[in-house]
Design goal:
Layout: H1 3-32, H2 36-49, H3 54-66, H4 70-82, H5 86-98, H6 102-118, H7 124-141, E1 147-155, E2 171-174, H8 175-178, E3 189-192, E4 198-204, E5 210-216, E6 227-228, E7 239-244, E8 250-255, E9 266-271, E10 283-284, E11 295-301, E12 306-311, E13 319-326, H9 339-347, H10 362-376, E14 385-388, E15 391-393, H11 402-434, H12 439-455, H13 458-478
Antiparallel strand pairs: 1-13, 2-3, 3-4, 4-5, 5-6, 7-8, 8-9, 9-10, 11-12, 12-13, 14-15
Helix pairs in contact: 1-2, 2-3, 3-4, 3-5, 4-5, 5-6, 6-7, 10-11, 11-12, 11-13
Length: about 475
Amino acid sequence: MSYRIYALILLFLSTTVQLSAQTLEAAKAMYKDGKYAEAKETFYQNLKKRTSDATLNHWYGVCLYMTGEKEKAIPYLEKAAQKKVQDAYLYLGNIYYDVYRFDEAAIQYEKYLESIRKNKGDTSVAVKYIEKAERAAGMLKRTEAVVIIDSMIVNKTDFLRNYKLSSESGELLYWSDIFKNSKETSDGTVYKNQRADKVIYSHPDKSGLYRLKERAKMDDGNWSEEMDISSINSDSSNNTYPFLMNDGLTLYYASDNDSLSIGNYDIFVTRKNLNTGSYLSSENVGMPFNSPFNDYMMAIDELNEVGWFASDRYQPAGKLIIYLFIPSEERQMYDDLQPASIIPYAKIKNIAATWREGADYSSLLSRIYKITHEKKEEPKADFIFIVKPGLIYTNLSQFKSPEAKALFKKGTDAEKEIEKTKASLVDLREKYRIAKKRTDISTQILKLEEYIKTLYPQPNNYLNLSRAAEAGILSKQKK
């Protein structure tokens, strides 16, 4: 080998090592800046060469965790934890917690606590993690055997419109629906009772915390001054998403109370003391209603004997899943199952698995869907379509833009397809209930459930595009 070739090889190897080092340094910098997706591949390539490197295993595991591949991160974080990388205990605990392995989560949090102690750091956060894991582990064992009859994935921004309650149950609204002339704004929700003479709502106070308030309708038709529900708003948590039962005493709401919840927002229930007018101590409604994620907006329609609640568990950003369930006066639990066998029920992994043997929910679902249809109908109008504030269309002939009209029809067709698919699911679930051979029916149900998930965003998307197209034409005509 000539000297020149040898020198070129050495130069190439030296440059490669240098570039590799620079790449790893760049990945470290991106990691520190929270750019986990950008740093992930570099850590992985380096890890293939140094599989036992605790730090690389930790960095790569954290990148997987932060980019949504949590369970894939477990073996890498476990290697890091074996080498006593402090934060690996925390991330492992978080992953176990999110998949309902609460006892294992508590063990990792204990190791995290002990490591902090050895380094003489602040242990208060670790203690809270341990308490939450132990609270969730106890709650898992007491998971309620509730019948979930349906679910739907919806947009978070306007999820309330999917709650189809009978008029006897009151009405769920947004702040702007009630207080249209208020100078204040709020993202909070409002419950208005059946008689429309009382509202309970959430509204931020001066500190920015959402608090529960109430107002009553006065003789002149205006709302009274805002009254704070002080017996609930006594801590430093956000309290929101209220719903009052027909008895006027039982109140459901959501709170991120750190000492009582297992997720971010959990659903709580309380009752008013008639003697004092204040509400009693709140109770966490437990699993499966609550989870390690955000759960809220519990509403009970006593006339139709169905309940509703929303959750962002395992949902992408901007989406929620709404569950319909059958309320029960007597709480039943899975006393004959071990915690590991209860997890699928607590997660609501398969709603059909919650159904009672021989029970028929088709008529109940049909009744709920009928309410949906009746609420959409408006007298003397084919539809109600708000093009912009102050401009409402009620029939197709009003459209000025052919493109807007076509998009609107696509949106309404998508809504019809959703209702048609829901009806097919009701029929298939009934067939599944009475069938001896269920495999083919189960496959059909799963396919339709996946299909309907793709349908749910379509009506809003098409209607928003229609609005934009029509508004564009109207703007040009003005000019």
